Amino acid sequence: MTKPIIFIDGEAGTTGLGIRQRLDAAGFAELRSIDPDKRKDEQARADLMAESDLVILCLPDDAAKQAAALAASLGNKAPRLLDASTAHRVADGWVYGFPEMEAGQARLIREAARVSNPGCYPTGAIALLRPLVEEGLLPADAHITINAVSGYSGGGKQMIEQYEGGKHPKFDVYGMSMEHKHVPEMHLFSKLARRPIFIPSVGDYRQGMIVSIPLFADQLTGKPSGKDVSDVLARRYAGSEAISVNPDLPARLEPEALNDTNKMELRVYANDRLGQMVLMARLDNLGKGASGAAVQNARLMLGV
């Protein structure tokens, strides 16, 4: 049986390398690479696109938009696209590549010509918030704050070099302008009517992520208990291979436990007496938060 052909446009970057490694290990596709000297040769890239069933874009946003336009110019030879950048996550004509987001999303990805791979931080936030909004438990206009910590690999080549060269703080909070590029997809796909506040941070470890969302019970319809909230999440992701709702609530939660997997764990920490809770998502920012999710979407798009 002939294997589908995949071209990773931008495979030299952190996400591209991760996708290639996972695809090599999976073995369901034939991978094509461009000569390093021709990475900016538009004709060479177009030729590879034309002979591919799927092109995965691992490029900066502007370059991803240019690559999408190049692919579209190929007419009936245009390949299907999976974009790992931020460029098309809330764009018309692109399907959001979060298969577990709702019933039917995997089918939409399977049938789509253009799919945008979700961001790492939004994957955790949307997984926690959207079911609560859709169930009517969390009002869409609630004031929501999302906090997160990621390993330094999420910052790309320059940040990796800084951390591994000892030229970066051990811990760094950023995004204080409230304009982080992941907020639009968090806002849209969580079904929130009000833009959330998002404050990310990065620690001195390579990969692994925790996303946390504090809530007061009186923000929620009916003042539900922590178990009530956990049960809503558990029903939503029942049967999922990638996402689990974990009743185990350790006093300390470290971010690296799911590294090198495509798994994500959700937890609800609650003090019902005080009417307070914190929703937590743990994942690998290079796994379910990037390369792992891309391979999951590639499988869907190619019918593997």
Radius of gyration: 20 Å
Distance between termini? Answer: 12 Å
Helix content: 25-40%
Which class best fits the helix and strand makeup? alpha/beta
Question: What is the residue-averaged pLDDT?
Answer: 95
- Shape verdict: globular
Question: What oligomeric state best describes the polypeptide chains here?
Answer: single chain
Main beta sheet: 7 strands, mixed
Beta strand %: 15-25%
Low-confidence stretches: none
The main sheet orders its strands as 8-9-7-10-13-12-11
Number of helices: 9
Number of strand elements: 13
Give a written overview of the molecule:
This protein is α/β, with parallel strands linked by helices and 304 residues long. 33% of the residues lie in helices and 21% in strands. It has helices spanning 14-26, 42-50, 61-72, 105-111, 120-134, 156-164, 183-189, 226-236, 287-302, and strands at residues 5-9, 30-32, 54-57, 80-83, 95-96, 114-116, 145-151, 171-173, 197-203, 209-216, 243-245, 264-271, 276-283. The strands form 2 sheets. A 7-stranded mixed beta sheet has the order 8-9-7-10-13-12-11. Helix 4 packs across helix 9 (287-302) and helix 5 crosses helix 8. The longest helix is centred in the last third of the chain and has 16 residues, at 287-302. The chain starts with a strand and ends with a helix. The model has no long low-confidence stretch (mean pLDDT 95).
